[in-house]
Design brief:
Distance between the termini of chain B: 18 Å
Distance between the termini of chain A: 23 Å
Structural class of chain B: alpha/beta
Number of helices of chain B: 7
Structural class of chain A: mainly alpha
Strand content of chain A: under 5%
Helix content of chain B: 25-40%
Largest interface: A-B, 24 and 28 residues
Mean pLDDT of chain B: 87
Shape of chain B: globular
Shape of chain A: elongated
Oligomer: heterodimer
Mean pLDDT of chain A: 91
């Protein structure tokens, strides 16, 4: 598994496919949170939105990176397509971690806020939840599930809108609601952590569904 | 399939050859019935190996060697050995996306042989290969089968199938229509030296005498010893060719 992780990681690193979503995320941070003097939780609400879009994009880019026949070889070598998918998701998580750190630190560095440990916990839990949901959408819109890139892009855009607008489809709307209430960060940290856990469960379900669909499509 | 067997799947386009191969390696699931696979180390060569990867061929093989459980040094050495054997040493450091079809096919073949497989499955492996690599691949497949692997491949060229396979299976719209056991033989034509009674030689199946000398028929793989005996007794070898007996 470690050797497969190293192979996929090196391949993605050389491909530079991670650059566009990362740069867009940085640009969004610069535009949306620089010199913000309001509550830190409001800045993090913007980060959640940017994180959701960029992790979806990043996931699609990384999962689609390996060519179809190249992936077939890897799957036969590993003896299980689910194992390959799990390692691919581990690579995606690795690439999303720097975004999480940037999303957490950038608003603090560039804005003027009073920071408490509760604020950091809120920011981390909220953005982690968004990243996990973004990865789940990215997986389900990857080539493993939707072969045509145009349809995949439209589906991903529609899915992002749906999770932002509808309350009970995913934890995203709930995360945004919690971040925009006026309660202190310490009070919000608990519910946001639970929502992040729920997002993790959604990602797990997406991995299983993607693996199953990819096997059937082969 | 048995260990040591070289099975050729033949049939028209769309007859289901590639599907059978994918079922064998577990890439596809059967709609009905079951596939039993006991081999643990399985290698697969797809019909077209298209890669847009910026990884070089040697780096790609090194990574896959590590996945196969080789140490970094062993993976590097094996990758270099296979690339040399398949005459790709010049392109070893070229990113895979820049490789020609034939050279990409060589990389696909090399990855399948990084460690000795128990089941080797190849979908039209000769496609796009030059003449030298063509012969090398035939030797590699025979060697792999001799090491105890079951080897299955698809191929349209009848000559290649005859000279390589020990068994031929013909498919028509997904249905097995013929199943033929074939034995690969080698004919050696010799000009006599000092006397040898070839009829007593354990590997010789047939001796045919003619004006220029004689021609021996032996099973492919066991003709080396006969050749050595002939040369040691001052015989000259005029031709060596593979034939097939069904």
């Amino acid at each position: 598994m470690t050797a497969l992780y190293r192979y996929l990681m090196t391949s993605v690193l050389l491909s530079q496919r991670y650059l566009p979503p990362t740069l867009i995320f940085l640009a969004a941070m610069a535009v949306g949170t620089t010199s913000d003097n309001g509550p830190l939780q409001s800045s993090y609400a913007f980060c959640v939105l940017a994180m959701l879009v960029c992790t979806t994009w990043l996931t699609v880019s990384i999962v689609n990176h390996e060519d179809h026949t190249q992936r077939q070889i890897t799957v036969v070598m590993m003896g299980s397509s689910l194992r390959v998918l799990a390692v691919t998701v581990a690579v995606v998580v690795t690439w999303c971690l720097p975004l999480l750190v940037i999303g957490l630190v950038y608003p603090i560095v560039t804005g003027k806020h009073e920071i408490t440990p509760g604020d950091l916990a809120v920011g981390a839990a909220a953005q982690l939840g968004a990243a996990l949901v973004g990865m789940a959408i990215g997986l389900l819109c990857s080539r493993l599930v939707i072969r045509r890139i145009g349809i995949a892009m439209l589906t991903a855009a529609a899915a992002i809108l749906v999770v932002l607008l509808l309350r009970w489809v995913s934890p995203i709307r709930q995360i945004m609601t919690v971040l925009s209430n006026d309660k202190p960060a310490g009070t919000n940290a608990g519910p946001l952590t639970l929502l992040a856990v729920l997002s993790g469960a959604i990602l797990l379900a997406a991995v299983v569904v993607t693996g199953s669909i990819a096997d059937r499509k082969e | 399939m048995k260990a040591g067997e070289l099975l050729a799947l033949i049939g028209a386009n769309g007859s289901g050859k590639s599907t059978v191969l994918k079922l064998m390696v577990g890439l596809s699931r059967p709609s009905t019935g079951t596939v039993q696979r006991t081999a643990r180390v399985v290698s697969y060569v797809p019909d077209v190996f298209a890669s847009h990867d910026r990884l070089s061929a040697s780096s790609y093989l090194r990574h896959l060697g590590r996945i196969r459980g080789l140490s970094t040094q062993a993976a590097r050495a094996r990758a270099t050995e296979l690339l040399d054997l398949l005459a790709l040493s010049g392109g070893a450091d070229t990113p895979m996306r820049k490789l020609s079809k034939g050279n990409a096919q060589k990389v696909a073949l090399a990855q399948a042989l990084l460690t000795p497989p128990r089941l080797l499955v190849l979908d039209e492996p000769w496609s796009g290969l030059d003449a030298t690599a063509h012969a090398t691949l035939r030797e590699l497949l025979t060697e792999t089968a001799e090491q105890g692997a079951a080897v299955a491949f698809t191929e349209h060229a009848a000559e290649v199938v005859r000279s390589t396979a020990t068994r031929v299976c013909e498919l028509e719209r997904g249905v097995l229509t013929t199943w033929t056991q074939q034995l690969s033989l080698t004919e050696i034509s010799l000009v006599p030296g000092t006397h040898i009674d070839w009829s007593r030689h354990p590997d010789v199946l047939e001796v045919r005498r003619h004006d220029a000398g004689l021609t021996l028929t032996l099973p492919t793989g066991s003709h080396d010893a006969a050749l050595l005996t002939a040369l040691n007794h001052g015989w000259s070898v005029t031709t060596v060719r593979q034939v097939t007996a069904e």
